[in-house]
Amino acid sequence: MFRYFALAIFVVGVLVGGYYRYKAEKAGEPISWNEEGAVVMVLLRVFGVIGWLSVITYLINPAWMSWSEMPLPDGARWIGVVTGIVSVPLLYWLFKSIGRNITQSVKTRKEHQLVTSGPYRWVRHPLYSVGTLLFLSFALMASNWFIALSSLLGLVMLMVRLPKEEQNLIEKFGDEYKNYMKRTGRLIPKIRTSH
């Protein structure tokens, strides 16, 4: 049963992400990955492919991923289902909000606009947050430590890449982006304290 939930969430997530990424690539100029640096570029793609392949392998035949199963109570697996279901509309919301500005690299497009609406009102990189949440939900549904590890390694590489991405955004938008950074969190909303 958990596999069927994971499959439905996976298919909808891929359709949403694929649709908006295709629209952005079709409408904008090609984006180079060179600015990321060779090590980051390679490791991020390797961990990404490993993460995707581990989820797809589980969806095709869970027995193929049985070597990395971990005993989880059904309650934890249901938390994975709920997290996955919640992640899909969040994914749609962030892709709809960022529109053609989405890229697969730290590089910005020539016509790049600073998006500060939708989830970007509170978080500068919600795709990284929601993507990690989605992969962790697959790890819970599959009861699989390897899927969890690959998603966390992917997040680590994204965090290594983030300073370069934010530097590019500062160069593109200047003080507007610096002010945006002050009022938003990087991956989760900033907690404001009143004085």
Low-pLDDT residue intervals, each spanning 5 or more residues: none
C-alpha end-to-end distance: 50 Å
- Arithmetic mean pLDDT: 89
What is the makeup of the main sheet? none
Report the C-alpha radius of gyration, rounded. 17 Å
Number of helices: 6
Instruction: Give the H and E element order.
Output: HHHHHH
Number of strands: 0
- How would you sum up the global shape? globular
Fraction in helix: 55-70%
Structural class: mainly alpha
The share of residues in extended strands comes to: under 5%
Account of the protein in words:
This protein has 195 residues and is mainly α. Helices cover 66% and strands 0% of the residues. The longest helix is centred in the C-terminal third of the chain and has 29 residues, at 145-173. The radius of gyration is 17 Å and the shape is globular.
